[in-house]
Amino acid sequence: MQVVISKRDFSGPLATPFEWTAESFDWSIYGGPTIASLSAPDNVYRWDAAKLLRCPVEILDDKGTPVWWGFVQAATIPQGTLGVGISLDGMYNAVAVTYANMPAGATTPSGQNTTAWALANESISEYGQRELLENMSDGTAAAAEARRDRILSEYRYPNAVVAAFGGDRIKLELRGWWDVLSWRYYANGGTAAAATLDQAAAMVATFTPLLTGAHLAAVSGLSTNQFRDGQTNAKSQIEELLKLGTSSGGRLAAIVNRSRVLRIDALPSASTPDLRLREDGKLENIADLVLDAARLDQAVGRWATLKSAPTVVGNYSTIHPFLIESATWRTGTASYKPVGQRDVFSIGKDGGY
User: Fold this and answer.
1) Rounded Cα–Cα distance for residues 181 and 206 (Å)
2) Which of 24, 25, 105, 233 is deepest in the core (most CB within 10 A)?
3) Per-residue pLDDT averaged across 222-237, rounded?
């Protein structure tokens, strides 16, 4: 596996003093590449790893084919028996506070209010806009604004955390570009019915330049009220729209490609499974060709059957084709999760090559 890290502004590759190894990565029908982890031997330049937050990353297989893409979410740096972690989690460079107005002399709040958004523009320029809508109980406009400004001052940049750490390697946690949709809230004051996928595309359009657009390769045939109160992040709202599926009962997938365009497609029907899960845990296609374990993109969103299992077990139980909802690659081994599976466990482990 080869790892390519780029500059935050997408202007080209970034040379780093580390020899990165891909430890694991995941794919899902919601987002495509979702999470991944890298590690590198510790060296005297260890603190440079903290500078990589939000840098774009691509993981390439041994043939040079990109198999995962996203950005650096967090870094853990060994320091003796300790580890110093620094992450985009908990960083907020745009903050507003909602509060129930309770002025002096009042016995009950006079209504729910929200402060104006306060922005840390340098941080936004560096990392992208990460929003926090904080809730405060009874208070005044001045108290809410003071709380907003304190939060922004403390959390506008990533903060380091020190904890016990038994490893001797530098670690990077990665997220797919789909994750940036959770960084911001989405509001729409309109109340007309709108096509569900058009609504999803409108949400994505507010996330440039981290996401560059949406391509609708499917039509849902469904419309819902487009009103959004601005209390929920865009990722959650888009996932709910996708889960509605199509008017004919079909399923939808949304994959962020290497160009950071979100493409929404209709998934194939269960009546046409084109993969088979073998007894050794490997997936093969109908031409008996085994899929490369690292090519999770070739498995996620497709229907599979168990190759060696009978169609009917006993008198009643039928083994149906299953849709591969997500998959994980870990040090040469792939595992696959079917739709509806509550626990994250493997239905097969692929030894790969």
Assistant:
1) 9
2) 25
3) 97
